[in-house]
Amino acid sequence: PGSPNPTSPKPASPVECSICFNTYDNTFKTPKLLQCSHVFCLECVARLSTGLPPNQPEDQLPCPFCRQLTSIPREGAPALETSKELLATLPPELQQEKVLWMEGTKLCCRQSSDDPENPDSCISIDVAMSKPESPEAPPAGLAGRLSRCDMCDDWKRIVLLSALIIILFCIILWPVQCALKTGNLRCFTRTVAMS
Fold first, then answer.
1. Residue 163: enclosing H or E segment and its boundaries?
2. Which residues does the UniProt record annotate as the domain RING-type (predicted)?
3. pTM for this one?
4. Nearest alpha carbon to residue 82 among 21, 27, 18
């Protein structure tokens, strides 16, 4: 009676994010508390908040579980309340939350360094959607026309299509042209050697 059903979904672990299934820590995987009291890691919340439609007066993030809205502060997802209960369950060296901030679509954290102005002292991850915001303009000329050709993207298809056209010409079209010219399929005239 106490054994779990093998077909039932895996219960959510209190020490891992229910979206990405990574263990919480005190940096990018900091447990962030939504207004509905569901907890997700900072990286997942930041990814969800960057996917919200632009030009809204206030960013309202729907909870992935219950759809209750949570207001995202102006500073972004790092400014959401951290779940102190979950942070306390982590190993002692991970219980002190690090300072994180958003720079555009990058989630940034300063590593312990003597020089805070050193760009190498910060680590960041991009939490934006994988598609570029503005499409790149194709180059001009033949290269530009080929880059706009959907079929030209796959060079193997082009080579295969070219080989098929050559085979079609050699096996089918050339004998037909020969038959129309000579009246039979003998296109090569044999020279008879006189002895």
1. helix 155-168
2. 17-67
3. 0.56
4. 27
